[in-house]
Amino acid sequence: MKKTILALTILICTFLQATAFAQWDPIVRLSDNAALSYTTEGVNCIASSGPSTHVIWQDERGGNWEIYYRRSTNGGTAWEVERRFTNNSGASYDPSICVSGSNVHVVWYDNHQGVPDIYYRRSTDGGANFQPEVRISNNAEDSYRPTITTSGSYVHVTWTDERDGNEEIYYKRSTDNGATWGAETRLTNNSAVSIENSVSASGSSVYVVWRDARDGNFEIYFKQSSDNGATWGSDTRLTNNPSHSTYPSISVSGVNVHIVWREFRDGNDEIYYKNSLNGGTNWGTDTRLTNNASQSYSPVINAQSSLLHVVWTDNREGNWEIYYKRSTNNGSSWGSDERLTNHVASSGSPSTSASGTALHVVFVDGIYGNEEIVYLRNPTGNFVGIEHISSEIPNGFSIEQNYPNPFNPTTNINFSIPKSAYVKLVVYDMMGRVAAELVNGNYSAGTYKVDFEASKLSSGTYFYKITAGEFTSVKKMTLVK
Question: Which of the chain's termini has less CB crowding within 10 Å, N or C?
Fold first, then answer.
């Protein structure tokens, strides 16, 4: 009997492990040439909105480093042919990408006009066409490692700049979706090194983190603007220990600000996490996300309301692999590590984006004999994109009719709450069974837009129900395929 129970237990565990990994589709190779191809370490090189997914990277195939671009218009199921994004005599490096609806924004640094400067291109038709490049920085010293984010019609860019005699963090914004650009703003001002910047925005708030050596060793610092980058608050030191803290990544949803970084305090490099649930005013304690005797590198975080996704590189298995971890409650607790790659070649520099029910991951992999860009997708995670679309306090609780309706496969649902509340938004089929859980967590007062992607559901009538405090409302929507 004991042997039977043991055998059954092993079978069940094997089935559960297989089920967990089965959520991830097979690897898709996005670049294919004999030269080197790289994503930017610690920076988002993938962005998604609804069914569209966009990937950017640097490539040496022509004997010169250039930026390449590729997109999918059906949630990562199929990919269009790659496109060469830059074409000049200089070298182009370290691209970063973000997307909002049909607006796609890309930055990189390039030395084709003498010294490395920051350049920008945009598409207003979902990546079908890109407008000519715009030079964002222009000085006699090096500017590099740009990062980009968008909120509404505002586009925010940060980078590292050497014009002041040492590395400092600079910022520039556009108020009209990248059509025109304002003046540069110097965000840091000290005699030490400030590098490895990361930026995120929600509503009128813009948040920047970076690595700073002003304290005698590298620590993570934070800075915030509450008026779309017009003015900035003071620097806030987020880490405080005698070891080095490096490569921070930031993502924000509403007033919830989340960062991850690489930390050496444990005798080897591990991934740490920290959050603020009130727009950066107060910060929680450090949370150690990895715990093994090997090295963990290049963390990137992506926030969807209370759902957080973290990817990183780890060599606990003897070679570099991509790992994933998530929290469903704004970082209060975390699930177990999930290994996304498993082969003898090295994998590195991952970044991630979520849209609708799909989670997208892109990284560099040597499985094909040289470094190539590869893509992974989890289409069944019941992920959902949630955007805080208004800072105004509504008069009462409400939920709007989804638009478009009927829809296929993506629709939007807006809801408003006049005060902080625990909100649940659930989709049911005609039999009353849960088809998707879109919202489940605490939200501050405001208006929110939920992107619901239903490609895995069958055509038919569905109901969505919101519960916020004592408020409850049910509406009907129709999926037509």
Answer: N
| Secondary structure in 3-state letters for the chain | CHHHHHHHHHHHHHHHHHHHHHCCCCCEECCCCCCCEECCCCCCCEEEECCEEEEEEEECCCCCCEEEEEEECCCCCCCCCCEECCCCCCCEEEEEEEEECCEEEEEEEECCCCCCEEEEEEECCCCCCCCCCEECCCCCCCEEEEEEEEECCEEEEEEEECCCCCCEEEEEEECCCCCCCCCCEECCCCCCCEEEEEEEEECCEEEEEEEECCCCCCEEEEEEECCCCCCCCCCEECCCCCCCEEEEEEEEECCEEEEEEEECCCCCCEEEEEEECCCCCCCCCCEECCCCCCCEEEEEEEEECCEEEEEEEECCCCCCEEEEEEECCCCCCCCCCEECCCCCCCEEEEEEEEECCEEEEEEEECCCCCCEEEEEEECCCCCCEEEEEECCCCCCCEECCCECCCECCEEEEEEEECCCEEEEEEEECCCCCEEEEEEEEEECCEEEEEEEECCCCCCEEEEEEEEECCEEEEEEEEECC
pLDDT at 385: 62
**CB atoms < 10 A from the CB of 242, how many?**
9
100: CB partners within 8 A, 6+ apart? 49, 150, 151, 152, 177
- Domains of the chain plus CATH, in order, are 24-383 (2.120.10.10), 386-479 (2.60.40.1930)
Greater confidence (249 vs 386) lies with 249
User: What residues contact 121, with CB distance under 8 A and at least 6 apart?
Assistant: 85, 106, 130, 131, 132, 133, 134
Answer for the pair 447, 414: CB distance below 8 angstroms, yes or no.
Answer: yes
Tokens 């055509």 correspond to what residue?
459
List CB contacts of 318: < 8 A, sequence separation 6 or more: none
Give the confidence band of 12 by pLDDT, cuts at 50, 70, 90.
very low
Instruction: Write down the pLDDT at residue 356.
Output: 67
* Contact partners, residue 45, CB within 8 Å, separation at least 6: 39, 55, 56, 57, 95, 96, 97, 349, 351, 362
Q: Residue 31 pLDDT more than 60?
A: yes
**61-118 pLDDT tens trace:** 988 999 999 999 988 999 999 999 999 889 999 999 999 888 999 999 999 999 999 9
- Residue 397, CA distances (Å) to 167, 256, 419 in order: 48, 21, 9
Model confidence at 381, pLDDT cuts 50, 70, 90, reads low
CA gap 333, 133 in Å, rounded:
43
Place of tokens 């195939």: 61
| Number of CB atoms found within 10 A of residue 392's CB | 11
